[in-house]
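User: Sequence recovery, please. Input:
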């Protein structure tokens, strides 16, 4: 038996406009940074432009994943294309890591052969970047907690705002002290900060792409809840995975007493799993009989029968 409750991604039109506006603003800013970065001979400014370019590509990928995930199920794709949003989040993380690698390579080269920069130009261009990237990040602020793909877009823009702030600092310190090394050093520090923030996105998106249990769900707690339901004598083949970055699915076999009202039990399970664990697509197979089979629960999840750990 199945009790399924798919939920559409909220604020689709609003998020679509956010992606379009963010891509337009950042694409224009990339051109601005490249032009003035060459004029000022600033590695930090050019590195920021390269990172901004990866952000534009990241936003395009995230928008594509968002649109693909909204495609309706078909005979050939019965879940739709929701997995596309997970792959988009993974691609976003990879793009960020590539940008950090390029930034670090250029910074190390500049440390070996220091060069002067036009500090004033660096400051005002980077300042514009702080404003643009902060505004773009705010466009995705509301959706970041409920969708990993949107979170990837938010992290991209928040990281770039941080990069631009660091570039501003490099320009100020250069004008104040004349330190030639400050430009590449700031670039390396920024890269390390971005790397730290990107690692979580990479780990989560890779985990979900391999049908891992979402971090918001504790499998043992789900098993305990199901086993504790009145009339349930055992559970087996419990699986939880992500259909996309905003939809979690679960399948389970429940052993129940022969006289138990199955429809009422399914309704209760569906409502409670959504409320307690955020699982929106629930498939339950009811079986009469006693006991529980360990198959499918995994070695780290307790096998539960008659409401107790076995």
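Assistant: Recovered sequence (310 residues):
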């Amino acid at each position: 038996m199945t009790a399924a409750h798919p939920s559409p991604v909220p604020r689709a039109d609003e998020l679509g406009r956010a992606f379009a506006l963010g891509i337009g603003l950042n694409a224009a800013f990339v051109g601005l940074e490249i032009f003035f970065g060459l004029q000022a001979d600033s590695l930090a400014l050019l590195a920021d432009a390269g990172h901004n370019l990866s952000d534009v590509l990241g936003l395009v990928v995230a928008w594509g994943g968002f649109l693909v995930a909204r495609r309706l199920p078909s005979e050939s794709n019965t879940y739709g294309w929701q997995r596309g949003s997970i792959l988009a989040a993974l691609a976003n993380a990879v793009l960020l890591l590539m940008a950090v690698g390029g930034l670090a390579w250029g910074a190390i080269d500049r440390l070996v052969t220091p060069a002067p920069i036009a500090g004033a130009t660096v400051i005002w261009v980077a300042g514009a970047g702080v404003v643009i990237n902060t505004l773009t990040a705010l466009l995705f602020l509301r959706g970041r907690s409920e969708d990993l793909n949107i979170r990837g877009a938010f992290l991209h823009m928040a990281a770039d705002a941080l990069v631009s702030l660091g570039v501003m600092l490099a320009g100020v310190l250069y004008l104040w002290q004349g330190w030639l090394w400050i430009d590449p050093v700031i670039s390396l520090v920024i890269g390390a900060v971005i790397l730290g923030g990107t690692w979580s996105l990479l780990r989560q998106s890779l985990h979900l792409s391999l049908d891992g249990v979402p971090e918001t769900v504790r499998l043992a707690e789900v098993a305990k809840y199901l086993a504790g339901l009145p009339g349930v004598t055992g559970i087996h083949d419990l699986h939880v995975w992500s259909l996309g970055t905003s939809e979690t699915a679960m399948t389970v076999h429940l052993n129940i007493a022969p006289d138990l009202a199955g429809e009422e039990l399914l309704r209760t399970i569906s409502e409670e799993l959504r409320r307690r664990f955020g699982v929106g697509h629930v498939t339950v197979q009811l079986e009469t009989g006693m006991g529980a089979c360990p198959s499918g629960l995994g070695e780290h999840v307790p096998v539960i029968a008659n409401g107790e750990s076995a």
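Confidence is low (pLDDT under 50) at residues 1-10, 291-310.
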